[in-house]
Amino acid sequence: SKLNELPLIVTDDIHLAFKTAYPIYAPYQSDKINAYTLKTLMQAHADLCVIAPVHQQDAIQRRYSGMDVKMAFIPEPPNIAMLQDELDSMIKVAIDQAKSLAKGHLAKPFKIKEGEYLNILMDGLYLVKEHDDGEGGIKRTRTRISDSAIILGEARSLNNNNWKRVIQFNDKDNVQHTLLIPYEHFMGEAQEALKIIANHGLMPPRQPNKKNVFINYIQDYPIEKRFRCVDRTGWHGHSYVTPSKTYGDSSGEELLFNSEMKNPYAVHGSLAGWQELSRLIEPHALGVLAFSCAFSGQLVAPLNLESGGFHIYGSSTDGKSTITKAACSVWGNPREVSKQWRTTDNALENEAELRNDSFLNLDELRQAPPKAVSDIVYMLTGGQGKSRSSKTGKNRDSKQFNLMYTSTGEVTLEEHLRRGGIELDAGLLLRFA
Fold it and tell me: What Pfam families does this protein's entry cite (predicted)?
């Protein structure tokens, strides 16, 4: 029946009790419902809501502070003339609004055990303990545990491995951190998890009792949302993932980027500024080419194309590096986005994966030995890194990426490779023109 679908209303207001069609619990006389009685009702009724007129809000919240109970407040007490439908409509609106958190709370209180709750407030985590005051009431004490942190949910990889807790907090400079902490780091005394949290600016409590409360909260807070974590930027289905934000449709599950690699991307300037810059570039063919590469990397996978790029060569004074580094500014600070040819293929493999479905620029071809250049060209045009073994001896998935890339140097790619006695396949040179 519809009656069974409604929450149990708990109220001190006798007039409200007689008027509403909701299932109701109210005192027979004018006595107030104490916390002990409410706790008993909560154990018997999962869907329960305390209702009161808004002018009683402060008193009601003080009476039931520290209890994980839904409270809703109607604008005015019911009067004789008020119709039942009008009152029930008012109650429904109040209950819907009550689904939001109480003022100052960042999340629902966490029940540690009977009579102990952790309040997750803006200024910190507070342990609330309830004691019998000897007069039929309840006395509460409050102890600060640590600075505040909230549990956003849990995440796992696309193949349902590598499960993690997702927590968020602000450090002492008010910079927000979102951490994905593997469940395996909570084994034993959870020292690995605590080290990660401390390293990002939230100092876990050192006193054993407080530390246990903190760990229990981080480990056991009920999960309401699940994420998928990915260690590669770019396209995942219809979502485009960057280290700081995910764009597009994630089919009901938000994707989170999880990697120890430094984020090369940054945001600066305005759309109007970029439009003005594009007008300055338009007359310059090499500038248009470089910026086109920077803007087109994210189109490679959706169009089912292969990675490709261009080597721009000429004298040291003709502005090659200036043009390509300006194109790097499409994605962030050119000093972070642009890389040198003089690097190991392993290091560049990591950089390519971090820029998957994006753009990479390699500067100063002459600095790199021809053999290293050959290995890098094969890797970039093939869109795949080396195969490696795991600790157990099994083959790990090789790193894969789609890219548009540019390169600069004073000689052609072919000429530089011939100096080392290396000949590249003509097909590869077509994709690294």
Answer: DUF927
What are the residue boundaries of the structural domains of the chain, listed by start?
2-98, 110-146, 150-257, 271-431
In our burial notation (b when 16+ CB lie closer than 10 A, e otherwise), range 267-286 reads eeeeeeeeeebeeebeeeeb
CATH number given to 2-98: 3.40.50
Q: Is 16 exposed, middle or buried (0-12, 13-18, 19+ CB in 10 A)?
A: buried
Q: Do 2-98 and 271-431 come out as alike in CATH topology?
A: yes
Is 291:337 a contact under the CB 8 Å cutoff? no
* Amino acid of residue 211: K
User: Is this prediction's pTM over 0.85?
Assistant: no
Is domain 271-431 classified as CATH 1.10.510?
no
Structure token digits, residue 36: 């002990």
Over the chain (433 residues), the average pLDDT of each successive run of 10 is: 66 81 78 82 83 80 75 78 83 74 73 87 90 77 94 91 94 92 94 96 95 95 87 88 81 79 82 84 89 92 89 83 89 88 82 89 88 84 66 62 90 85 74 73
Rama region for 13: left / alpha / beta (φ>0; ψ in -120 to 50; rest): beta
Q: Are 227 and 254 in contact (CB under 8 A)?
A: yes
